[in-house]
Every structure is written in structure tokens, then in C-alpha cells.
What does this fold into?
Amino acid sequence: MAAQNPWSERETSVLSKLDNPWDVQVFLNSLPYNPKPECKSPRRVMEEKCAHCFEGALFAAAALRYLGQVPKVVDLSAFNDDDHVIAIYRRGKFYGSVAKSNTTVLRFREPVYRSLRELVMSYFDFYFNTVGKKTLRKYSRPLDLRIFDSRNWMTTDEDLEFIGDYFPNQKYYSVLTEQMIKELYPIDPDVLKAGFMGALEEGLFKAKDL
It folds into this structure.
């Protein structure tokens, strides 16, 4: 938790009810998906009661920080699809994650993964676009959001795209070889249908059937 509490009494009331990472996920799941090309701070997410993937990850990182975690996010980089940003947390030596998604299968992960790569690969089979192609290709080194504390990233009214602009400075790790990409199998139709159940059409990446 930050040395000085930046939250208002009302915001503290919201955050204090989120007792663990799963509570943070349930809160994010309750918010409508935001299809707008913007990036609100966690404060604005609480005020406006909506979030997209990046906003959700930043809110989750702030909420996890309130619980004593280091606020870190990881960018999952995709081909012919949107990237996905997750907030990571630790329980002992093991990794878990919290995420906002317009799909049903790219959200919460239990803290049972022994490495960051293990955690990321738990998303692989469920990271697909609207034409049924598996799209995850790389993931970033964790970005410690404390480097943006001087810009009050948790509470500012400023758009936070500057955080997204920082990701190219991070090292990325490939998850597939070129040969693996050529040999990928299609998504099970039932999984494809379940993945986009309840998705907001306006917020979906318009994939090409390459």
C-alpha cells in the first residue's frame, strides 16, 4: 500500500470491501465493458462504473496494492486481435492474475502458477479472435506501476494512455515458434461460442480471416 492513502472516504469504502483478489475480479465482472478509446484511472473507474481491459487491469493493480501487493501489470501481445493486459499478484512463490475482459475466458487466474510464463500460458488456448484463431504471441516483463506514482495514476483525471505507451520499453518474450504458429489447430466451436457469450459487440476486435 502507498505510504499516503490517496483515496477518498467513499473510495476507501469500496476498496475495503474487496478482501482478496477474487473479490477484485467479481467487482470488475460487475462493471459494463467500456468500448471507448480512452484509459481512465482507477478513481474514474469507480466513479463512472465501467472499464475496458486496460482500465480493468489498472484498477485491479490499484486494488491489489491496497491489499499489500506490488501493483504490476503484464501485456499479452496478440496477432490479428487486441492485446490483453492483466494485473498479477503473488501468494508466496506462486502467481495469479486479475483481468477485465469482453470475453468470458481471459479473466481471473488462481495463484497456482510457478512462473510468469506458466501463468501467461494458462491463457493461450483461450486467447482467440472472433474468427476462431488462437492469437497470443508474446508477453511483456511485468510493469511496476509505482514508477507512475508521481503522475498520480491511481487517482488522476488525466487519460492514462501514457502507461500503455511505456510498454514498448519492456522486454517481450515469445510464446511460440514460427513452426508452432503454422501448425496451430482451430478452436473448438463450443469454446468459441462460450468465450464470446455476453460480449459487447462494439468492444470486439474486428479480426480478419487470414
